């Protein structure tokens, strides 16, 4: 699993569409796309998907276009995993990323505003593309590493599980989220999480 530093802050001159990430964030009158956590224990991982298919259908997996989406929409996630399994660190784990929006944990938990106690992971995919084996492997290795560093077992949910009809019914949001969707194979992912033969190559 290779992790590339690509923080969503004004020090990052990476391409973001036809501009730089730095200029896009400055254009939002921000220094970075995260905020401080308020002392909550981090114990949840939320899986999402993201692509640029609605910006340029010819380049749905283009990293620069996806980075521009974060800026234009004022959202963020701690990690992004591309189709080849490269992991990009976008937000430090000790900061609150803006990935869940109005949200509520499934019963019996029912905590709201999930950003405060979660780590967000975006997988580059479209509603129809599915996910690559490299993405599953990197996601599993990343999640195992997160659990090891935090010293606890995490709860795993999809964005759809916390930002669906229940969240709308509570008045936390106006729309429902559908990611990572039915093509994300939770059984396969959990199997990789517990597979002792899956080892980090240290790249």
CATH superfamily: Peptidoglycan recognition protein-like
Q: How many beta strands in the DSSP annotation? A: 10
Q: Mind telling me the C-alpha Rg? A: 16 Å
Q: Percent helix among the residues? A: 25-40%
Write the CATH architecture name.
3-Layer(aba) Sandwich
End-to-end span in angstroms? Answer: 6 Å
Overall number of domains: 1
User: What would the average pLDDT be, to the nearest integer?
Assistant: 96
CATH class: Alpha Beta
- Please summarize the sheet with the most strands: 6 strands, mixed
Strand order of the largest sheet: 1-7-6-9-5-10
Q: Give the DSSP E fraction (strand runs of 2 or more residues).
A: 15-25%
Topology-level CATH name = Lysozyme-like
H/E element sequence: EEEHEEHEEEEHEHHH
Low-pLDDT residue spans: none
Q: What shape does the CA trace take?
A: globular
Give the structural class.
alpha/beta
Q: In DSSP terms, counting alpha (H) and pi (I) runs of 4 or more, how many helices?
A: 6
């Amino acid at each position: 699993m290779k992790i590339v530093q690509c923080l969503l802050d004004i020090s990052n001159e990476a391409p973001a569409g036809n501009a730089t990430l730095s200029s896009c964030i400055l254009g939002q009158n921000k220094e970075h796309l995260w905020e401080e956590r308020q002392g909550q224990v981090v114990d949840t991982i939320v899986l999402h998907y993201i692509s640029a298919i609605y910006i340029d259908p010819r380049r749905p997996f283009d990293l620069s276009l996806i980075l521009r989406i974060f800026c234009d929409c004022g959202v963020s996630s701690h990690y992004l995993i591309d189709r080849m399994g490269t992991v990009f660190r976008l937000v430090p784990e000790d900061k609150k990323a803006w990935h869940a929006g109005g949200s509520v944990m499934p019963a019996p938990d029912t905590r709201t505003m999930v950003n405060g106690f979660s780590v967000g992971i975006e997988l580059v995919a479209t509603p129809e593309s599915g996910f690559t084996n490299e993405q599953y492997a990197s996601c599993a290795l990343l999640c195992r590493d997160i659990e090891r560093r935090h010293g606890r077992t995490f709860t795993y949910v999809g964005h759809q599980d916390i930002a669906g009809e229940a969240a709308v019914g509570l008045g936390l949001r106006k729309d429902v989220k559908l990611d990572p969707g039915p093509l994300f194979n939770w059984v396969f992912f959990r199997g990789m999480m517990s597979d002792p033969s899956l080892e980090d190559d240290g790249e």
